[in-house]
């Protein structure tokens, strides 16, 4: 439909701009050591971004705050106007922490590797991802646009049926979605400057997750650093600091439902048995040839 933006057949959410994504691909050069958190929406993007910020700057309060400001301005690679890249350049911040929901074919891997930028691809089991999207999509600010007004429905059965049929046009091709996003990212799993991380692994053992990310980013942390970062990036801390900031900035702007529940296994309360089975089949069909295994409940092993 006419209101939906796209590049190479991949649909963009409103407010994410194909021209800005193209600018990132063709013109923008990252600094050595920049970190791009890549993901499909609702897989823990903001959590990983916050982990990276704390890991990089836990020893320097001033830089920690400065990084927060640049992240706010810059947010996602394809978000907003191309001119923001000039601003970023002028800020001349050492290691930027960026994010993107772009599918792998729209990412300039070669350039980022040559320039020494690092990429962390965040993943979450597709059933909880869908539940998180259900809650987010009803409050997201673009719900008023035609393509999304028709998409959201409080009727869970209908919502998930249409979502799993690939009818929600976000960062995927027609009829596709999260699983195809994973499939296209998968070949980059072993790139030297790419790290794959699971939401559920972080939930299970955050200290280990922090150490792994720190190692990937060439940062040395003490045990105390790890404990402190775990505390600062906990669900409750992040929710509280966002709430405070939103209270200061605007009383009336709708609060984004980014920090909703932060749990594993909630899908059991939302999906029908048939929908859950459908996802299992799709995972087998689309990702069966990969070594990606999802955790659907924290006390169970991978399947
Ligand atoms: P829920 O909707 O299931 O609560 P994204 O940043 O990609 O939009 O992902 C949002 C999801 O990550 C939300 O899931 C949110 O609660 C969860 N999340 C954010 N910060 C978190 C944290 N510190 N710990 C656990 N989950 C977190």
Automatic annotation (TrEMBL):
InterPro entries linked: P-loop_NTPase, Sulfotransferase_dom
Any one Pfam family match given in the protein's UniProt record, by short name: Sulfotransfer_1
Family according to the record: Belongs to the sulfotransferase 1 family.
Domain named Sulfotransferase: residues: 33-289
EC id: 2.8.2.-
Protein name: Sulfotransferase
Keyword annotations of the record: Transferase
């Amino acid at each position: 439909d006419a209101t939906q933006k796209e590049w190479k057949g991949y649909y963009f959410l409103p407010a994410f701009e194909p021209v800005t994504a193209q600018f990132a691909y063709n013109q923008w050069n990252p600094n050595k050591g920049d970190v791009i958190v890549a993901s499909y929406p609702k897989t823990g993007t903001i959590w990983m971004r916050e982990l990276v910020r704390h890991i990089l700057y836990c020893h320097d309060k001033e830089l920690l705050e400065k990084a927060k400001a640049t992240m706010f301005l810059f947010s996602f690679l394809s978000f907003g106007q191309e001119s923001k890249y000039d601003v970023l350049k002028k800020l001349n911040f050492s290691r930027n922490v960026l994010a993107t929901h772009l599918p792998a074919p729209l990412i300039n891997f070669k350039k980022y590797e040559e320039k020494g930028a690092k990429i962390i691809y965040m993943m979450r089991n597709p059933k909880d991802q869908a539940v998180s999207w259900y809650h987010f999509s009803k409050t997201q600010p673009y719900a008023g646009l035609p393509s999304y007004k028709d998409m959201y429905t409080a009727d869970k059965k209908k919502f998930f049926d249409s979502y799993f049929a690939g009818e929600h046009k976000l960062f995927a091709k027609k009829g596709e979605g999260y699983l195809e996003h994973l499939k296209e990212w998968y070949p980059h799993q072993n790139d030297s400057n790419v790290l794959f991380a699971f939401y559920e692994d972080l939930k299970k053992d955050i200290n280990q997750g922090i150490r792994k990310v720190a190692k990937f980013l060439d940062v040395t942390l003490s045990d105390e650093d790890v404990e402190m970062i775990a505390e600062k990036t906990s669900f409750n801390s992040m929710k509280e600091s966002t709430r405070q900031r939103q209270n200061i900035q605007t009383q009336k702007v709708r609060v984004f439902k980014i920090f909703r529940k932060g749990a594993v296994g909630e899908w059991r309360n939302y999906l029908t048995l048939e929908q859950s089975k459908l996802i299992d089949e799709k995972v087998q069909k689309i990702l069966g040839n990969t070594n990606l295994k999802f955790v659907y409940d924290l006390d169970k092993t991978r399947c």
